[in-house]
Amino acid sequence: MAGCDYCGEGARGRAAAPSAWWFCSNQCRDSGKVLEVLDSLPPATVNTRIDEAHRGPCPECGAPAPIDFYKSYKAYSVIIATTWKTETHVCCWRCARRHQWKAIGFTAGLGWWGVPWGFVATPIQIGRNLIEMCQRWTGPSVEFVRAVRLNFARSIAAANEPPRSFKKFGET
């Protein structure tokens, strides 16, 4: 199933598709109207922007390496409370592995201490990190392409927006 062109989720409700873009809800359709700016551009221009963003440099280490979205997974437990979360990083492959190893260390040290969920969440989150570490992408991920398209469309829309005039304090 195709995901929403704005948020990337599947169908949460009824599809709202007034144009070539597909949205999962009316809220995403309203927020994603900025994507219509890309309809007037040649696809090669948008693809060039995506390739430039993917080629780097890494925003964390500055290395001239391909960047993408990478995830790390953590779990933390204290007696009867256990929390787990997913963190998304925009960085190169090397920095992503560093984040994932830190998450494994954090979870291995602090994830076990909750009953009963610490014993369940900790191996799951460590396993998710290991699986994520084994994946190698040959090109930009779907999430990365979506984010670059949205940022590109927002920058074009902002450049085309007429300047606002502000009144000085006390003017009517």
Q: Would you summarize the structure shown here?
A:
The chain is α+β, with helices and mostly antiparallel strands and 172 residues long. The protein has five helices and two strands; from the N terminus they run H-H-E-E-H-H-H.
Gap between N and C termini, in Å? 53 Å
The number of helical segments is 5
* Mean pLDDT over all positions: 86
Cα radius of gyration in angstroms:
21 Å
User: Approximately how much beta-strand content do the residues carry?
Assistant: 5-15%
Biggest sheet statistics:
2 strands, antiparallel
Run of helices and strands? HHEEHHH
Q: Please provide the count of β strands.
A: 2
- Helix fraction, binned, reads 40-55%
Instruction: Report the uncertain regions.
Output: none
Q: Strand pairing plus helix content: what structural class? A: alpha+beta
Strand order across the largest sheet: 1-2
Shape: globular
Written account of the structure:
This protein is α+β, with helices and mostly antiparallel strands and 172 residues long. The chain has a domain at 67-134. The chain has 5 helices and 2 strands, in the order ααββααα. The protein has helices at 26-31, 43-54, 93-110, 117-134, 142-160; strands at 67-78, 81-92. It has a two-stranded antiparallel ribbon. A hairpin with a 2-residue loop joins β1 and β2 (81-92). α3 (93-110) runs antiparallel to α4 (117-134). The protein is globular and about 55 Å long. It starts with 25 loop residues before the first helix and ends in a 12-residue tail after the last helix.
List keywords for this structure.
single chain, 172 residues, alpha+beta, two-stranded antiparallel sheet
